[in-house]
Design brief:
mainly alpha, Endonuclease III, domain 1, 13 helices
């Protein structure tokens, strides 16, 4: 988990990241309020469903469909049983594809059967958590990493498969590799940022968005 005070997390992490000369450029040029810092631990089910809804959609469209999903259950995130019992046609009617309906119901079934607790989740290291969560159909490594970072607020998560992180690091470090070779090079560079690789990812995302403008 992140330090209880996100300001302390930011200050401590920024000090480590500045030791990397290229990352220092980002830390010194991007204000903290431009970063999407993880907050308190949220309901992992809710974060996961939001991630599934967002797959291959713009942020705007994803928010609309997710809002409809919540409205379907009276404005609050539903219990697993209610999701499982909801007619597929009703879920498709709010804009979800057939496959996303399957994935959302599979996630509800998974959490109903596994019944994870805060203690059991805390006992899993990052790799064990990814292996556990990707047992859900439709949930891949990237989704598990995002849940780790934003759902469990783990401070040292790195996502070399994330397209935005790849674009940012290729530009920042002048990387010519692609595929597995690129990811391996990214992993080697990211070792410098431990134990604050989550914060490094936030800076890389913010920098990529800034460069696009």
């Amino acid at each position: 988990m992140l330090e209880k005070d996100p300001v302390i997390y930011f200050m401590n992490g920024a000090e480590i990241l500045r030791k990397d000369a290229r990352m220092r450029r980002l830390v010194d040029s991007i204000p903290a309020d431009r970063l999407h810092l993880p907050g308190k631990q949220s309901d992992l089910r809710e974060y996961l469903v939001g991630s599934i809804v967002s797959q291959q959609l713009s942020v705007h469209v994803a928010r609309i469909i997710y809002g409809r999903f919540i409205d379907l259950y009276g404005g609050t995130f539903p219990e697993n049983a209610r999701i499982i019992e909801t007619d597929d046609a009703e879920l498709r009617g709010i804009g979800l594809s057939t496959r996303k309906v399957q994935y959302i119901k599979a996630s509800a079934t998974f959490f109903e059967e596994e019944s994870p607790t805060s203690a059991s989740l805390a006992a899993m290291d990052d790799e064990a958590f990814c292996e556990w969560l990707t047992r859900i159909p439709g949930v891949g490594r990237w989704t598990a990493e995002m849940v780790l970072m934003f759902g469990l607020c783990r401070p040292d998560v790195f996502s070399p498969g994330d397209y935005g992180i790849q674009v940012a690091m290729k530009n920042l470090y002048r990387l010519d590799e692609s595929g597995a070779a690129l990811r391996a090079k990214m992993e080697r560079i990211a070792v410098r940022w431990k134990p604050y690789r989550s914060l490094a990812c936030l800076y890389l995302w913010a920098w990529k968005d800034q460069e696009k403008k």
